[in-house]
Write a structure and sequence with these properties.
The complex is a heterodimer of chains A (about 350) and B (about 300). Chain A has about 350 residues and is an all-alpha fold. Chain A contains 13 helices and 2 strands, in the order E-H-H-H-H-H-H-H-H-H-H-H-H-H-E. In chain A, helix 3 packs across helix 11 and helix 11 crosses helix 12. The chains are: A mainly alpha (about 350), B mainly alpha (about 300). At the A-B interface, helix 6, helix 11 and helix 13 of A face helix 4, helix 10 and helix 12 of B.
C-alpha cells in the first residue's frame, strides 16, 4: 500500500471537463449492454437483436411508445417520493409499502363512492391516497425523529407488514365474490382516471406524475423549505447550527415522501388496474430509489430516468414476448445500470492520473 | 402445553438458523464500516444457486458450497462499490439486492420455465442424536447446519471478532479508520475481507432455506428475512452472541405463528396477522434495544486518505 511506485490513481478534481457529464449516461448504457449480453446469449438470443427490441422497437409504434409513458408513471411518482426524503437525508426505503397504502385507500373509496360524480370522487381519492401513504410513513418517521431509530430498517420491515395487510384484505373481506380471486371489487366508473389517448392505457395518472415532478422542482429550487431540506441532507449538525429545525424538516420531508408514494398507488388502481391486486406494484417503490439516484436527486433527472426505465420495462416485455428472453432481464438491466452509473458518477469528481 | 412448548423450541431453532447466519454476516460487514443492504438479494441468490447446483449435481453439499462462493462474489461486488469506489452504501446495497433477485429469477425461468409448482429436491436429513428420549429428540432433531450455526459459527464469530488480531482490525477499521491506517492496517483489504465473509454467510443462510428447510426454491423464499437480519444486527449491538438472541426472538415469534396456524383455531383475526407478527416484534425489539445502539463510528463512510 505504501510503496511509492508510480501507478494510476484517482485524483480529486473540482472542475471536471464539460464533456464528462453527458458522457456518463451513454457510457453507462454501453457498459451495461456489455455486462448483460452474456445473459442474453445464455437465453439463446442475439444480444444486438435483443437490444433492438429492448430499446428501439418500443419507440417505433404509437401504441408501444404510449406504453412507455404508462410504465414511467408510477416510477415518476415513486422517484419524486424518494427524492423528497433522500434530499433531506432521510432514507425512506418504504415507498413500496406506502404505495400499497395509497392503493388500498383508492380501491376502498373507489367502490364506496360509486354513485358520487367524478369531480368529487377523484380529488377525494387523491387526498385519501396521499393521507394513507403519509400515515404509513408516519411510524418510522416519528421513530426516527423522536427516538433516533434507524429509518432504513423500519421502513424495510414495514414493507413486509404491508404486503400481509394487502393479502389479508384480498383473501378476506375484499375477495372478489364472483370469481373468488384475491382481488378487490372493481372501482366505480367515477373513480377511473380519464384516458389521455383513446384506446390506450395512458391516463390522467401521467399528468399527476408530471405535476409531481414540477412540484419537486419548485420546492427544491424555489422555496426556503427546499433549501432547508437540502441543508439537513448535507449534514445534520451543520444544519442545526444554522438554526434549522432538523427534526421538523426531516419529519415533513418523510411524510410528503410517503404521501407521494401513496399517490403512485392511487394512479395504479384508478388508472390501470381498477381494483387492488397483490402484484399491483412491480417493485416500483424500490425502483424509485434507483430513479432518484440516477436522477441525481433533481426533478429533471428524475423525469428522464423514469422515462428511460419506462422504456426498459416496456422493452423487457417485448423481448420476453418476441424472443423468449425472461422478462427479468429488465430488472437486471436496471440494477446493473444503477451500479455502473454510480461508479461512473465518480468520473465527475475524479480524474485518472499517473503519479 | 408441554408438548406445545417443546415443539416450539425445536421449530424456533430451525427457523432462526438462516436469519442468524445472515445476521452474523451483516455484523462482520457493518463492523468494518459497511452497511450491506444487498443482504436480502444475496440470501435470495444463495437460495437459488444452492438449489440449482444441488439439482444439477445431485449433491446438496456442492450446492451449499456454490451458494457460499456466489455470496462471496456479491459481497466483493459490494466491496468494490463501497470500498474502492466509495459510493452511497444504501443505494449500492439495494442495487445489489435488485441485481441478485433479477439474476436468480432470470436463471430460474430459463431452467425451470414458468411452472407454478416449484420443483422439489431431496433436502438435507435432520440429525437425531437423542432419538430414545422423545422430548429431547423434538428439540435436538435438527439439521447439521443448525448445529454448526449455533455451536460453531456463533462462538467462532465472537472469538474471531473479539479475541484475534484480525477481529481487532475489523473493529478498528469500522470504528476509527484513520487510527487503524496510522497503525499500519490495510483498510481496503480488511473491508474487502469483511464483505466477503458477510456475503458468504448471507448466501449460506439463503441456501439453508432452499436446501434444508424447503427442499425447493420459490419466489417468496426470503420474504424480507434479510431486512429482519439487519434489524437483528442493531438489536444485537454488533455482537454475534447477542445477535443470536435477537434471531431467537424473531424465530420464536415466527415458529409460534406457524404453530397457531396449524392448530386451526377459529380466530376472529386473519392469519396474516400472525405472519406479520414477527416483523412487528422485530420493530418493537429494535425500538427498545436500538435506543442504546452504538453504531460503528465509520459506518456508511468510505475511507480516503486526504
Amino acid at each position: 500500500m505504501d510503496t511509492p511506485k508510480k501507478r494510476l490513481r484517482f485524483v480529486k478534481t473540482d472542475n471536471p471537463p464539460v464533456w464528462v457529464k453527458p458522457l456518463i449516461p451513454v457510457l453507462s448504457l454501453v457498459v451495461t449492454f456489455i455486462l448483460t449480453s452474456g445473459l442474453i446469449i445464455w437465453a439463446n438470443a442475439n444480444p444486438l437483436e435483443t437490444y433492438y427490441y429492448f430499446l428501439i422497437a418500443p419507440l417505433t409504434t404509437k401504441v408501444s411508445a404510449l406504453e412507455i409513458l404508462v410504465k414511467a408513471t408510477p416510477l415518476m411518482l415513486t422517484g419524486v417520493a424518494v427524492t423528497f426524503a433522500f434530499s433531506a437525508g432521510y432514507y425512506n426505503i418504504g415507498a413500496e409499502g406506502q404505495l400499497y397504502a395509497g392503493a388500498i385507500a383508492a380501491a376502498g373509496l373507489g367502490v364506496v363512492m360509486k354513485d358520487v360524480p367524478a369531480i368529487i370522487t377523484i380529488p377525494t381519492i387523491l387526498i385519501a391516497g396521499f393521507a394513507a401513504g403519509l400515515a404509513w410513513a408516519l411510524i418510522p418517521a416519528l421513530l426516527k425523529v423522536k427516538m433516533a431509530v434507524d429509518e432504513v430498517v423500519t421502513t424495510l420491515l414495514l414493507n413486509s407488514v404491508m404486503l400481509y395487510i394487502v393479502s389479508a384484505l384480498l383473501n378476506g373481506p375484499w375477495r372478489d365474490p364472483n370469481s373468488g380471486w384475491p382481488q378487490s371489487p372493481e372501482i366505480g366508473v367515477t373513480a377511473i382516471f380519464f384516458k389521455l389517448v383513446p384506446r390506450s392505457r395512458l391516463n390522467f395518472g401521467f399528468i399527476i406524475g408530471l405535476i409531481a415532478i414540477a412540484v419537486l422542482w419548485f420546492v427544491l429550487t424555489r422555496t426556503s423549505f427546499g433549501l432547508k431540506m437540502r441543508a439537513v441532507g448535507l449534514g445534520r449538525p451543520a444544519a442545526r447550527f444554522a438554526g434549522i429545525n432538523v427534526g421538523r424538516t426531516t419529519l415533513i420531508a418523510a411524510l410528503v415522501s410517503g404521501g407521494i408514494a401513496g399517490i403512485a398507488g392511487v394512479a395504479e388502481v384508478c388508472g390501470i388496474q381498477y381494483h387492488l391486486i397483490e402484484g399491483i406494484s412491480a417493485g416500483y417503490g424500490y425502483t424509485g430509489i434507483i430513479i432518484a439516484t440516477l436522477g441525481s436527486l433533481n426533478a429533471i433527472g428524475v423525469l428522464l430516468a423514469s422515462l428511460f426505465f419506462g422504456l426498459v420495462d416496456a422493452g423487457s416485455q417485448t423481448v420476453s414476448r418476441v424472443l423468449g428472453v425472461p422478462v427479468y432481464l429488465g430488472e437486471i438491466t436496471q440494477a446493473t445500470m444503477l451500479l455502473v452509473a454510480l461508479g461512473m458518477f465518480l468520473l465527475q469528481r475524479y480524474r485518472l492520473r499517473r503519479m | 402445553m408441554e408438548i406445545f412448548l417443546i415443539n416450539l423450541i425445536g421449530a424456533t431453532l430451525r427457523v432462526s438458523t438462516p436469519i442468524l447466519l445472515a445476521a452474523i454476516g451483516e455484523t462482520y460487514t457493518e463492523r468494518a464500516g459497511i452497511l450491506n443492504l444487498g443482504i436480502e438479494g444475496i440470501m435470495f441468490i444463495g437460495a437459488f444457486s444452492g438449489f440449482y447446483v444441488a439439482d444439477q449435481t445431485g449433491s446438496l453439499w456442492v450446492g451449499l458450497f456454490a451458494a457460499i462462493v456466489i455470496g462471496i462474489l456479491f459481497g466483493l461486488l459490494m466491496g468494490l462499490m463501497t470500498v474502492t469506489l466509495g459510493v452511497n452504501q444504501h443505494v449500492s446495497g439495494l442495487g445489489i439486492t435488485m441485481l441478485c433477485t433479477g439474476l436468480s429469477l432470470f436463471a430460474f425461468r430459463l431452467n425451470y420455465g414458468g411452472r407454478s409448482t416449484p420443483p422439489y429436491i431431496p433436502s438435507f436429513q435432520q440429525l437425531a442424536p437423542f432419538e430414545s428420549i422423545p422430548w429431547l429428540n423434538t428439540i435436538t432433531q435438527q439439521y447439521l447446519l443448525t448445529y454448526i450455526t449455533f455451536l460453531v459459527i456463533v462462538p467462532l464469530a465472537w472469538w474471531i471478532l473479539y479475541k484475534t488480531s484480525f477481529g481487532l482490525k475489523i473493529r478498528s477499521v469500522g470504528e476509527n479508520p484513520e487510527a487503524a491506517d496510522a497503525a499500519g492496517v490495510n483498510i481496503f483489504a480488511i473491508r474487502y475481507a469483511a464483505c466477503a465473509i458477510g456475503g458468504g454467510l448471507m448466501a449460506a443462510g439463503g441456501a439453508f432455506l432452499s436446501l434444508a428447510q424447503l427442499g425447493a426454491f420459490t419466489h417468496g423464499i426470503i420474504a424480507g428475512r434479510g431486512w429482519v437480519a439487519i434489524a437483528i444486527v442493531i438489536f444485537g449491538n454488533w455482537n454475534p452472541v447477542r445477535a443470536m438472541w435477537g434471531a431467537l426472538i424473531f424465530g420464536g415469534t415466527y415458529a409460534l405463528q406457524l404453530r397457531l396456524q396449524t392448530m386451526g383455531l377459529q380466530l376472529p383475526i386473519p392469519y396474516e396477522t400472525f405472519l406479520a407478527l414477527p416483523y412487528i416484534v422485530t420493530i418493537i425489539a429494535l425500538v427498545i434495544a436500538g435506543r442504546n445502539a452504538s453504531y460503528p463510528a465509520a459506518l456508511l463512510k468510505p475511507y480516503r486518505r486526504e
